[in-house]
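Hi everyone,

Forwarding the result from last night's run.
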Amino acid sequence: MRMLVHRTAGGIALPFDLEAVKDHLRVTGPDNDEAIQRMAWTAAGEIEHFAQIALLTQTIRVTIFAPHRACGLTLPIGPADDGDVPTVTLDGEAFTAFDFVGGNRPYIRWLADYHGLTPSRITIEYQAGFGAAASDIPTDLAQALMDQAALHYDGRSPMDAKSLTTSPHMARIGARYRGVQV
């Protein structure tokens, strides 16, 4: 089984409050706004990748080639709303014989109609994220983003690769959202 995951941003909103990030970095004035914004974007991407989440609402498209015969599938990016049911296609044909459970680790459970099929490709498209604005992101993740941005800000142009790592706070919070997958 091979799984490809593609994210499409839902809008142009920033997943952070630039003024809050600057305050966390103890920066006043607009001189470094562009550089700080790039660092905060980088930190946001690192959190999303590490925790397997979407900070702001985005469309997630999962394509699975040669899927395993299983009762269900944990979707790779969360959180997803229970009421926002994904669209599923099997070999290009719409398929609706599944139950969906949202949350931090969204899950699709295949119903009886699926088990008699042998698809070579499954495509699942769904919405994931905490909301459309930075204010919708949980405060612990917002703080982890600022701590990771501070690590980038303080460690600009490191002399060795070990100098620029992951903020311990981001690792701790990200692990909590990532959860355990079987």
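The beta strands are 2-9, 58-65, 72-74, 87-90, 93-95, 98-101, 107-110, 121-128.

Cheers,
N.
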